Amino acid sequence: MAGGWTRDGAVLDQIEDTVGDGVSSARARLPTGPGTEECIECGEDIPERRRLALPGVTTCVQCQSGRDATIRHSAINRCGSKDSQLR
Question: What is the value of pTM for the model shown?
Answer without folding.
Answer: 0.52
